Amino acid sequence: MGTDGDERTLSIIGLAFRIAYLLSRHFWLAWPLSRWLGLALFVLALWAARYWWPNLAPATGFFLAWLAYVAFLAVAGRSRFLHFRPRPGAQPHTDGPVPPLAKLELVPARASGWFAVEGQGQYYVDLDADFETTGTREHVVLARVHPSRLLLLANWPSYEIGWWYIFVEPSAIRGLRLGHLHFGLKPRLALRVDYSLKLEKKERLESVILTFPDAVNLCRVWEDLARDAPPDAAVQGGNPCRQQEL
Predict the structure, then answer these.
(1) Mean pLDDT, rounded, for 53-62
(2) Which of 1, 79, 164, 170 has a CA 20 to 30 Å removed from the CA of 206?
(3) Is residue 74 located within the same domain as residue 16?
(4) At what angle do helices 57-78 and 4-25 cross, to 10 degrees?
């Protein structure tokens, strides 16, 4: 278990990642707000150098702030704007056995991962979604990108509004892990599904991270996926949904 200090740090990181993601996904005049903010800091550094010349201390401060901001955006982007912390002891609490998923039953969730529609692909974080399993045991995440405005100025690209999907065949499952998703100030118990994704005759490892409004549905989806996981998949030991809550 992590210390309170670790949890606070991860909560702050999660909040910073969420802000960075929102800035990167809302556009004004063809640029994301994240780029406009970086440009503003750089221009302030140049203006400070000219206004306070020969005192370069203010300009240096703005320039260092710009460097820190650019470095943070790079780290956030490489982390996919979220932090998933595997927790072997993270166990959802249910009052009893959970009913299995019915064929094509839609389970409300929030999803992060690589989505596709009509030959186009895009990475999204924390989308409003549903999880279902078809009659052929294919697992599907159906997510919605809603219209969104930030700071009364920037908008989510209109061409991305609508439905996006993730399809996972049983044989493609490579791992199942429970942990905590840090995206925003409050961590959430989450399920990470590692799977093999084929794109244009190439194959790569992808992950979809799912959170649910309650522990019962998380357990139902866990058991549904674990049922189909190949023997060599890295599935968290045992069934965490049948253990005592810590």
Answers:
(1) 89
(2) 1
(3) yes
(4) 90
